[in-house]
């Protein structure tokens, strides 16, 4: 009897789950609510204003917010192009999984979407070999060529063919928690060089017990920006790895020195752009972050307690006159060769990523520094007081961005890059900052292992 | 005519086993053979394979990351053997005691963790072993004035975390194996030993342990396979296949990394073959040493 | 004298009883701790979970039913995964049990040429870790154009070696007279299987259904490799996808994990015996 009762209960529960499931997930998505930031991973169909004749397309991404952006652009596109309307099925998957699945899908020609986001670090995997499975976007890029940052297009190109459009430049900036700095009696505006940063950091630690910044073990933002400031890179002109270069040693030794002086410290999650680390920042345990411009959106969305406390400034440098920024991170939106509507997909991607409407929207909703710089000088957009990215920070990001505009370097993304990144983030940086391994030794080992893996 | 053929008693057994034969050939023997073939090729999905002889094998021998993954898997396997054989055996004997109150209750509750999926259990333990001071493990240890530790960044601690997960999930199940083994032991042995004045420990050594041998061999065999082939636990624990300094990388994890993440199917197949050889060698040796084959020939 | 000895024994027994109970109670608490922590955390905001880790802190200020509310009313795919998992599990178990019983009967009831060789093949499958076949199987599924379909998950395991083995052991104990009587009645070989054998197998079906069902319900790696379409994701895959830094999914993660265990819990309470039979089936000497 008891058994039957339990079985009935279980079956009923399952049935209820399944039925409520029908109601909540298979109904047509309301396009405005569909991509709200609290939405979990899900497939959404965008383009509710599209007519019955609209072309249906699939879009894969690993960032919820990118779906949100494309949704807005889709609305505009469908209004402007009643004859070429689009319906977009958006699938959001975790970073690693999406790239693994996408790579296999485009290589086998089975199940690939029409449009996809590929993160910069994974991009070279897609350009390997003679048959690139992506469509060249040169023709749709032409109208925007003159105003777009060339370095941000080059990283998604092979030969003279452009394969992806980015959301942002990702210029690295310094974010300072002025509340902590004020307590320690430090004025962030006086921090010009790494020596200044170190002095300030020591003072912050002595006065408040907080760390000035992070020693990253699971990302290469710091390593990249320090290399770029020395006009160096992880790879040489032939694309061969050189992670044990004198510049890299200098960069790492400087960071180790900062760590020894309690200026920087390792952080849960291993780098600022992780959930654990954002928690630490939100608690006010770190006084600065040296991160790309897109980190602004993390402040707004996930570190709400810090509103009004953070100021933005150029990065410290080794010696004054060195380039103060580098474009880091990024996601190229591509069109796959297996798409049934290549031309339409290309036109839409260019519109959604590079047009004036798109770049304005990118700043407004995503808070990114768009690759099409036309908008950088449009004060009505960049200093719009209704913009939450303008409200959150004590200083305007574009004041700093325009100041360093001509100093934004690039780190090459080549065939060896994913391997280099993988070794540094899993092995080397941990060995240096967590285990205290000697910098030269660790970097030599890394170089050896990278060469071995690339064979 | 066909009907008669199919219905004949001679043909019927073949019809019965046909589904197995088909599945065996297509989804087992062919892939296994293909795995051997692939291990001598440079092969990517969507591209033509290239024969490269034994290059994959020679590369594997000097591949430090692969050696690391083998070490991790073997250490994990040995750890599970040490923790998941003697203790469950002991618990089974204790819980089987006539003096035990609430036997059924404990039996079923210890079984509960085995019901959770790796996806869920791995996530739970990932959060329990968080490096924040307020995570469960750190807050428990702080009661004793130890820690906090960064469990998932340290070689030994992360292995301990993985083993804790394994113990949590499988202690109850292994205990049940031993309980069903104990059931088959005739109580007369114990009575006879009691008359001879044997102590509890002597009875355990002389009667229980030897008579539980078949169970132990079974548990040993599956634990060796499960230990060497462990992957999803690590995948969930480190939230991905890339753990700091590869402390969580297992053999299958490396196979996955090379095959799925890097699309080097040939090299990954070689990893698989090595795993097969290692697992087979260890288990056949173990079965031979314990004399299992002799018994089965009877 | 005798009396004295007895009371002493009883006192010892009581101490032993208490010690045993104490020992197992401690063990019980340790084993239940993660469940308790999860249950507790399902009332906390998801971001807290990642920022502070899973813990036992009872913080009534931040605890609420919001996660449960979100689970039942929010916009997410949880119940689609749930449905998919149920569909897949039921389909997989039904087909696997039926085919495996069919095959096992062939092995148990007939003496035919090649039987031993084929049975060695069954044992061989049980001896080799499935993980080794991941890649060749993966590329085979790709070549067969079965990628992204449930058949890619169900078909390779449809003649499950462990299940065949178990059924065969069970069927060996069935008297041959039963089969003979069927033949005398004029039934053909297949009718005998359907009419006479399947009913006899019922009790062992329950154990195997639960074992296969649990494996299927909890299976992650293989389905995750072959399923690319989000609309086909199963519960374990779905829960795994929630662990991404690029979306705020943590609210759903823990409450969803918690919820995924509940149906199995209920089934377990009801069919405990079969669960245990199924799980320990392999250890029963053949």
Automatic annotation (TrEMBL), chain A:
InterPro entries: Bact_solute-bd_prot1, SBP. Transmembrane segments: none annotated. The keyword Heme does not apply. SUPFAM superfamilies: Periplasmic binding protein-like II (SSF53850). Residues 1-18 form the signal peptide. It comes from the Bacteria. Keywords: Cell membrane, Lipoprotein, Membrane, Palmitate, Signal, Sugar transport, Transport. PANTHER family: ARABINOSE-BINDING PROTEIN-RELATED, POLYGALACTURONAN_RHAMNOGALACTURONAN-BINDING PROTEIN YTCQ. This is ABC-type sugar transport system, periplasmic component. It comes from Ruminiclostridium cellobioparum subsp. termitidis CT1112.
UniProtKB/TrEMBL annotation, chain B:
It holds the Pfam family BPD_transp_1. It comes from Ruminiclostridium cellobioparum subsp. termitidis CT1112. PANTHER family: ABC TRANSPORTER PERMEASE PROTEIN (PTHR30193), INNER MEMBRANE ABC TRANSPORTER PERMEASE PROTEIN YCJO (PTHR30193:SF37). It is found in: Cell membrane. The chain crosses the membrane at residues 12-30, 74-97, 109-129, 159-179, 217-238, 265-284. Belongs to the binding-protein-dependent transport system permease family. It is a multi-pass membrane protein. One of its GO terms (biological process) is transmembrane transport. Residues 70-286 form the ABC transmembrane type-1 domain. Keywords: Cell membrane, Membrane, Transmembrane, Transmembrane helix, Transport. CDD domains: TM_PBP2. GO terms for cellular component: plasma membrane. This is ABC transporter, permease protein.
Automatic annotation (TrEMBL), chain C:
The chain crosses the membrane at residues 18-39, 86-110, 117-138, 150-171, 192-211, 252-271. Residues 82-271 form the ABC transmembrane type-1 domain. GO terms for cellular component: plasma membrane. Keywords: Cell membrane, Membrane, Sugar transport, Transmembrane, Transmembrane helix, Transport. It is found in: Cell membrane. CDD domains: TM_PBP2. PROSITE patterns: ABC_TM1. One of its GO terms (biological process) is transmembrane transport. It is a multi-pass membrane protein. Its main location: membrane. It holds the Pfam family BPD_transp_1. Belongs to the binding-protein-dependent transport system permease family. This is ABC-type sugar transport system, permease component. It comes from Ruminiclostridium cellobioparum subsp. termitidis CT1112.
